[in-house]
Amino acid sequence: MKTYRLNRLFNAKSGRCFDVAIDHGFFNQPGFLTGIEDMQRAVDTVVQAGPDAVQLTTGQARHLQKIPGRQKPSLVLRTDVANVYGRELPTEPMSAMIAEPALQAVRLDAACMCVNLFQIPDAAGVTNQCIENICGLKLESDYYGMPMMVEPLVFRPNSEAGGYMVDGDLVKIQHLVRQAVELGADVIKADPTDDVSVYHKVVEAAGGIPVLVRGGGRAPDEEILARTEELIKQGVSGIVYGRNVVQHANPAGMVAALMAIVHDGATAKQAAKHLSSK
To answer: Is the pTM of this model over 0.85?
Structure first.
């Protein structure tokens, strides 16, 4: 049954996936709502652009799933909420699961569910919570046939720029990805490395489990497109970008540009032409 759902997640033409993450409001962090203040509008804009999947929470999945027709993107359900994204870590960092996540994913007709695996300086306790979350979710995942996407995130110290500042060290990312695979991930959503040309080593560490690369913080268009082109060359199975889509002046154009790279093998220069059309 997992294969059936994964067939809805990955594009039949290329075998890859472009998932647009719009779950940032789950984390109660100032600045995370930029571009998604009006969720119905944000979801409608992304859906019309036609990515393979949209990542949403239990409370916001309705905006996607109420859309009629068979061609809308698949739902990836966010299953855990954390408080670790601010410039200062809270006294009690945590990552908490929603109740019966796989059952909720089935009821919402999701194709996959996503759960974090944090590695944060001075916050070993929250890593332990993540491992416990994943171990519990694995049983539900197998029982309901709901694929489990594990998101191994290696943070730089929060004091530098908050918890979304990626530590792009190859070894750290490689090892955390391997741990996620060992814990039973069906799909990996991982950080980019500082040197994208070595990313094939992360793919290798995943041992055949599809690796999707997250976009991280907002970056210039040229950087995002060039990085995506190189990641595809490195053998990744797709991307999960959020703020670089929903905070863009032309979200639909950015989706089209990224889809061209991910599914059609376009170069960054060729893909950039989509950004000039609205």
So the answer is: yes
